[in-house]
C-alpha cells in the first residue's frame, strides 16, 4: 500500500524511481523501473545503487536493527540520503496503550522529542514464535533501535514517523467498522464506548506518500526526524460522525459496554484511556509540507474504495 503510493508520488514529483521488491513484477504503467531484490541482502541493494546511479534510498520495510545496520553499512558513501519510514509506535504513550509501561500518559500532542517507550520489542510474546510462523518477524520488530542505527549513518538521513495509515488499498480496512454498516443500509451501529472515545492519529495514504516523497533530496528533511500528521487527531466518535455525514447515513449509534463485541475483543489488551495524539507541527513549520488531500476528499475516496470492494465481493 505505502510503497505503491510513494512510488507514484515520486514519479509525479519528477523523480526517476526504482522499486526494489522480492515480489512478482508489478504493472509498470506507473512509470517506475522495477527490479527484483531482497532488501535484507545488502549486496543486492548496493548493486542496484551502483548500476542505476541511485542517490536516495527510501526504506519502507526497516523492521529490525540488525538488517538495517547491515544495509546502512553497505550504503555509506554511496548515496546522498537514506530515508527511514518509522512509526509513531515509538512513543511512550504507545507502550502505555499496550500496557507495557507504567505511569501516566502524556495528554499533550506528542512532539518528536516526546518520551519514547522504555520497553522494547512491543510485539514479542511470552514464547518466541516458531520459524514457520508468518509473524515471526514481529519478535524482532522495533523502530526505536532502528532509528538509533540510522542516526549513526555517515551520510544524510531522514526519519519519518508515520501514523496509522488509511485509504484505498488499506489491508487493515481501518474504518470498515463504520463504513461497511452504513453502506449496507444498517439502521443502527453498535460500537463499544471505549472505542468511540479513543483519540488517536490517522493519516491518509496519499498525504503520507506525498510527505515521504517530499523528503527525497530536500535539504530541510536531512538529518532530522519528523512526525507525519496530515489530519488533526480526533476520537472515533468524531470520525464516525464525519463518515456518516459524507455517506448521508441517518441511523442510530448504540454504545455498548459488552466485552463480547468484536471490537472489544480485538482491543481487550489495550488501555483505550491512553490517547495517541501526535503533532505534525515540526513537519509543516520546517519543511513547508501541506497535505494534498483534504479530510473531506480523503473520506470520499476511502468510502468509494470500500463501496467498490463490497460490490466485488
Notes on the protein architecture:
The mean pLDDT is about 95. The chain has about 325 residues and is an alpha/beta fold. It has twelve helices and twelve strands. The longest helix has 18 residues, at about 295-310. Helices cover about 35% and strands about 15% of the residues. Helix 3 runs parallel beside helix 5 (about 145-150). The strands form five sheets. A four-stranded parallel beta sheet has the order 3-4-5-10. It has a two-stranded parallel sheet with strand order 1-2. A two-stranded parallel sheet has the order 6-9.
Helix percent band = 25-40%
Q: How would you spell out the order of helices and strands?
A: HEEHEHEHHEEHEHEEHEEHEHHH
What structural category characterises the helix and strand content?
Answer: alpha/beta
Low-confidence stretches: none
Question: Can you give the mean pLDDT?
Answer: 95
Distance between the termini: 20 Å
Give the overall form.
globular
Rg over CA atoms, rounded to whole Å, is: 20 Å
* Biggest sheet layout: 4 strands, parallel
SSE layout and pairings?
Elements: H1 2-12, E1 18-21, E2 33-36, H2 42-52, E3 56-59, H3 65-75, E4 81-87, H4 92-97, H5 143-150, E5 156-162, E6 164-166, H6 176-183, E7 188-192, H7 193-197, E8 199-200, E9 202-204, H8 205-214, E10 224-227, E11 234-235, H9 236-247, E12 252-256, H10 262-266, H11 281-287, H12 295-312
Parallel strand pairs: 1-2, 3-4, 4-5, 5-10, 6-9, 7-12
Antiparallel strand pairs: 8-11
